Amino acid sequence: MADQTQQKTTPKITLLHRTSSVVIVEPDHGGGFSQVVAICFTINYLVGTGFLCLPFAFYTGGTILSTITLAAVLFFSNVTKNYILEAMARAEAMHDDDARHNADNGKRDLFLASTESSHSSRQYGTISAAATDEIERTDEESQGSASATLPLYEEELYLLDTSMGNAAPSLQRGKEESDKMYCVRDIKFEYTELVHMFLGKLAERIYIFSVSLTQFLTLWGFTAVFSSAVAVQFPIIHDYVADYNVYVLVYAAVVIPLSCLNLNEQVLFQLILSAFRFVLIFVMIYTVLRATHDADDVTYFISQKEPEGAEHVRLQGFYSMFSILVYAALFHNGIPVLSEPVANKMKLGGMFRTTLVLCSVLFWTLGYFIASFFGHNVEQSTNLNWKDYVGGTGRPKDDSNWNAGWEDTALWADALSLFVVAFPALNVVSAFPLNAIVLGNNLMAAVYGEDVHEHETNVKCRVIFRLLSSIPPIIGSTFVRELGVITSYAGIFAIATAFVFPPLLYIQSIAITERRGLKRRTCYEGVGSSKTWATFVCILSSVAVFYVLICLIISG
């Protein structure tokens, strides 16, 4: 099934007509994910548990300071995701260059792309079966009619021609560098592979350590959110810790099997949960705004009669707030996995940018207004604040003691309370497998190195590594249950993954491709696509890592 899926999602390049200097081509994007589906997958990856901590972060750092920090984090996230896409495109250009080199020498090795020598034997990248088939047909088709399929290793590299605009993408053997741009096509390079290719073995080990801990803590947080939410809403033993541990086992029974499936087998499930996720955020924002507006007349939250407010600037909480915001915006280590099923990879930059814009609006609205309403009562996992939502209906059983309970609440109010508290539990059921797959792939690449792609096709081996990535954090969640604590520490490694490694990849990928006589430009260039910008981002982010770490250690 995996091979059939790969064949369906491979963009096919068909020759339409040839002139003396330009080869016009049309990618066949049928069979892969559309941009809408890909955006939903990315939102599911981004909106895991981080958004539930945003109100707590906004209260901790102050609403205005948090607003400015969130804008900066999302801006730099957009810049660094371009760095990763550009490194992926240059890696594929190096791969094609080696394929062309080997074809000239009568060889058919498709996996050569190394920084250690001009043409080394280190293997990188997963090329789809359909793309391999096209190479095998090259000898017959390249001498046939004008409808022949382009081989991956022509006499010169085929580069994206931007002179005709986005509406008419084409490939050409251009002479002017300004018209030549690489883009991601058929080959998936894991983040780990990119780091090894461009930064070396030591950097690869540091990255694997960093991203593994980030993903480990992310999965840990998912388990804590699910178990705490369901234990509050549906107690079994009526002892919180005992109920929490019971639901940890329930969660494990659901997400571990899902983590062993491929992304293509989860499309409908991911789309449905993505839609409900937007509904959840809308309900949380709307109910808080309504409670703020009607505070003098009716009670919406039993424990919160009126808005408490929050400070605009709290410098003492900046380090924690910053760490949580970076963690909430982290998706960079999943870019190779999220990009692979997308049909039109030329639009990956815009697709991920759209996702960041959508999430930034939702993140700010959620963080600002909920923090302003609940103040110091805001939960670290804010959905738990809705456990006593009554929506302006009902009345206290004892007017002198509201904690004694509430009666005659409307059915719709109880339903909203249940939805907000319980849905994040279902939400992290969808996000857990996506993150477990990314962690499992990186662990596999770390263990097998250049032989990783031989083992990726082995179902048993793939399942083992996904089990190794999903089981330990579930066990860890039985010891530490506080989401704010988990995300604060995860944020340290998220800073390195999202803001330190991408600019290093950008700088080195340019240097290495130019040293091999290849062009440097890609179709993913944007704001910040310069060595000066990349150096600035790398230095600033490195300082931030040590700042947050020292503050967390001092604060205990």
Description:
The chain contains 18 helices and nine strands. A hairpin with an 8-residue loop joins strand 4 and strand 5. By secondary structure, the chain is mainly α. The two termini are 50 Å apart. The N terminus is likely disordered.
Topology:
Blueprint: H1 2-9, E1 12-18, E2 22-28, H2 35-46, H3 50-61, H4 63-104, E3 126-127, H5 129-136, H6 138-141, E4 159-161, E5 170-172, E6 180-181, E7 187-188, H7 191-199, H8 201-233, H9 240-259, H10 267-293, H11 318-328, H12 335-339, H13 348-374, E8 395-396, E9 406-407, H14 411-448, H15 452-456, H16 459-476, H17 483-515, H18 531-555
Antiparallel strand pairs: 1-2, 2-5, 3-7, 4-5, 4-6, 8-9
Helix pairs in contact: 2-10, 2-13, 3-4, 3-11, 3-13, 4-11, 4-13, 4-17, 7-8, 7-17, 8-9, 8-14, 8-16, 8-17, 9-14, 9-16, 10-13, 10-14, 11-17, 11-18, 14-16, 17-18
Assembly of the depicted chains? single chain
Task: Please summarize the sheet with the most strands.
Answer: 5 strands, antiparallel
Give the ordered list of helices and strands.
Answer: HEEHHHEHHEEEEHHHHHHHEEHHHHH
Give the % helix.
Answer: 55-70%
Return the average pLDDT rounded to an integer: 75
Content-based structural category: mainly alpha
Strand order of the largest sheet: 1-2-5-4-6
Total number of helices: 18
- The total beta strand count reads 9
Low-confidence stretches: 1-30, 106-123, 127-178
Distance between the termini: 50 Å
Strand content: 5-15%
Net shape: globular
Radius of gyration equals 25 Å
